[in-house]
Amino acid sequence: MTDLDRLAAEKYVLLTTFRKDGRAVPTPVWAVRDGDALAVWTVSDSGKVKRIRRDGRVTVAPCDVRGRPHGEAVPGHATIDDPESTRRVRGLLKHKYRLIGRLSLLGSRLRRGESGTVGLRIVLDGATPGHD
């Protein structure tokens, strides 16, 4: 099983982004496989989006809902999805997380609007696109 398969099968992953001074900022998030990458969904103006916009370097590790890791962190590179890709990620999350996913996405859309959240695409280091 590849790192991508293992992480995509987790209910939560710990996404760690990095501040300008190099300090790590870990956050537990939902994740889903999106082709040859891992996709997560977050608030558009969150700190992690700002950090990824500046420096896409991240690590991803399996974790529990509180962010306690229970496996090795894997380095990768994150990019911010465009609106069309973000819609696709929302659909993948609805499928994986079923009712709770649908309710969370609906609540978020009602609170923040369609553009209030964004998908993040994470390509794991060492993963060859289309060959994992």
Would you write up a description of this structure?
33% of the residues lie in helices and 34% in strands. The model has no long low-confidence stretch (mean pLDDT 90). The protein has helices at residues 3-8, 47-54, 83-112; strands spanning 12-18, 24-29, 32-34, 37-43, 57-63, 74-80, 117-124. The chain contains three helices and seven strands, in the order H-E-E-E-E-H-E-E-H-E. It is of the alpha+beta class and 132 residues long. It has a single domain (3-124), classed as Roll (Pnp Oxidase, Chain A). The termini are close together. The longest helix is centred in the last third of the chain and has 30 residues, at 83-112. Strands 2-1-5-6-7-4-3 form a seven-stranded antiparallel sheet, with helices on both faces. It is globular and about 35 Å long.
Helix- and strand-based class? alpha+beta
- End-to-end gap: 9 Å
Work out the number of β strands. 7
The overall average pLDDT, rounded, is: 90
The major β-sheet equals: 7 strands, antiparallel
Report the portion of residues in β strands.
Answer: 25-35%
CATH hierarchy: architecture: Roll
CATH homologous superfamily annotation: Electron Transport, Fmn-binding Protein, Chain A
Radius of gyration: 14 Å
CATH fold call: Pnp Oxidase, Chain A
Helix content: 25-40%
Element pattern in H and E? HEEEEHEEHE
Q: What characteristic shape results from the CA principal axes?
A: globular
Low-confidence stretches: none
Taken together, the total number of domains comes to 1
